[in-house]
Amino acid sequence: SLGRPVVWALKKGSGRRTVVLTGHYDTVDTACYGVFEPYALAPYALRSALSAAPPEDEELRRDLADENWMFGRGCADMKAGLALNLNALYEYEPGEVNVLFTAVSDEENLSAGARQAVGLYHLLRERFGLDYAVAVVSEPVERAEGAPHPVINGSAGKILPVVVARGIPAHSASMLRGINSAHLIANVIRETEYDTAFLSQGGSLFTEPPAAQMVRDLKAGYDVSMPEYTAAAFNMTLFCGTDPVALMERLLENCRSAAEALIMRYEA
User: What is the pTM of this model?
Assistant: First the structure.
């Protein structure tokens, strides 16, 4: 809807088998850079600004002194991965295998760019006779000094359930006449985050417990009454053996417990 393209390039081999090298070119917000936000998209200026105000973190100070490191929003996640993909495409001497590079937008918005690319993959398959064998997503990994870079085969599924709490609005000067929806959502978060009942197991691996990704009341502006509606979205990941409907049932149980706890506190 925003006109962002899927950028692609194909180096054709003699056969049908095709390797897809892909990643996203969008980034998240820069507000977390604080006073350094004006430099967040200018790596060399950011290095100078950080060096002028040496951070307390010893690891960061060491990296600032090392020209092999680049700083700035999106350098790791995931412009570096796209650069690796493009270099692999450029260096590849065509043999039997085809190499297709794609860069997509909007990772954070329900993978809109990747879903947009599905149509492109279909068109290219028909146009060039491609047989997609494997896709490599060169996302960054957590830093581990001296450890080999991991190759992860597959991924967990993800759902993002949204809980909307409705309270009984009342003026804050008479707050006992109402129920605060923000209080209820806070209870839901307390019941749900770190809840091991949501863990999904695949072999020796476990998913992460739920995390609240977004929390906000739904008031259009400030007034002195308690919010009638408050919402929270939870990140939940799962492996094939887990039924996502069962996770929703567990979340509903947590919502009931959260409401009961609020009522008990109110009555006390």
Answer: 0.76
